Structure formats: C-alpha cells, structure tokens
Known about the structure:
Blueprint: E1 6-12, H1 19-24, E2 30-35, H2 49-55, E3 59-62, H3 70-81, E4 86-89, E5 94-95, H4 98-109, E6 115-117, E7 120-125, E8 130-134, E9 138-142, E10 158-160, E11 166-172, H5 176-185, H6 196-202, E12 215-216, H7 222-232
Parallel strand pairs: 1-2, 1-4, 2-3, 6-10, 7-11
Antiparallel strand pairs: 4-9, 5-11, 6-9, 7-8, 8-12
Amino acid sequence: MNINEFATCTVAYNDEELIGGMLKGVEDLHNLVIISKPWRGEHFGFDRTGEIAKRMGAEIIHKDFERQGVERNFGMEYLEKKGFKHIFIIDTDEYYTKENIYKMMEYVEGHSSKFYKSKNDKVYWKSWKYYFQHRACLNYMKSSSRFSGKRTPKGKGSQGFPFEIEMHHFSFSCTEKKMLEKIRTREYAVMSFKSWFKTYWKDWKMGDNSFKTILETKDIPEEILGRYIKSINLLY
C-alpha cells in the first residue's frame, strides 16, 4: 500500500475542541484543513482550529465559500493536482480508529469504486455517554471525483465497505453554548426551526426518544474516547 497516495479533506469552522482528536486518528496521512467562514449564519470570528491543526502537521488553507459543497470540490481538485489518488472526507467531529482507517485504505487501493460509505455511524448525544445510530455516511472518494451537493457525489458507484466500519460522530456532544453557536452558524437542516434546541436537546432526559432513539454508550473504543477527552480539553 502506498500511503503517499492517501489524504484527508476537512472543512472547519471554530472546531478547536474536536479537530485535535480527529486529526490524531489520521496523523499518518496528508491532512488538508480548509477553514472558511460560515456560508450561512453568523460569523463569530475564528478560534484556534487552524493553530491546532497546523501544530499537528495539517496543511491549512483559509478560503471563504458561498455555499456548502463547493469547498469540498475545491479541496478535491487541490489534492488531485498534488498527486493524491485517494481522499477521505472527514469532518472535525467524525472520529475513526486508526485500525479502521488502515482497513479502508487497504481495501480501496485494490478496488475500482469511486465512492464508499461507512456502515455504522454512531452519533453521540449530549455527551459521549449516549448515542443514536445514523445512516451510513460517505467517507471515501477517488480524488478525481466531485460533489453535486453537501456530501452527495456526482455520478454513480457509491457503495458500503463489505466489512464493518464504525464512525464516531460528536456533532451533538458539546456544551449548551457550543450547541447554540452551531445552530447560528451551520447549515443543519434538522436544527432549522427555532424550538429545536429546547424541545429536543436542552431539556432531554434519558428515555426521551422524541428526536431519535437514544441509547446508552457501552462499547466506545478506548482510543476514540481518549482522543475525544484530550481534544475537548485542548490538549493537542
């Protein structure tokens, strides 16, 4: 396997509490982090996301975009021109074990499909102690591929890996202050109506499944939990 043909593409905005742990899982690859103002919503100024990513060896590009999806195509084209053939699309709140990253790398190098999805996405709710299951998320593309939307690839050929790949998603695991900032800056359709924060997130108690079926976390890998806790404490 030629590791020099693999890269990651991440678009970030004020994710200093998550990006360190995410990058730690892919530290053996070339990591491109594109930092952009929100394409919708308010701009609060930039935090230490770029500083942390740069310290961890990532390549940083500051560039603003008018809509979501365009920035990822920019990253794909940029990485293709640099000679990378295989790209993992990873958001700052999406964590993979190093074992699973290498498992995916070994598989895609020997197969022809342009896109692949993980099969088991765990989305953590309020904290790492609770989660709900999410549909498979596209996480790999050949560098010649492009997006038609937020995370929808152009053309056909997307499929799931023929083995279990677990993605640990920390989008809803944060403080109240951070969740309110996400609602005001990000294009989350699920949080678009005004009462979402209080109705489903702020006042949630275990047993309330009105938003999603929430389960107690019992099997989070130690590697993932350790990276997450270190990251939210800004220790990277």
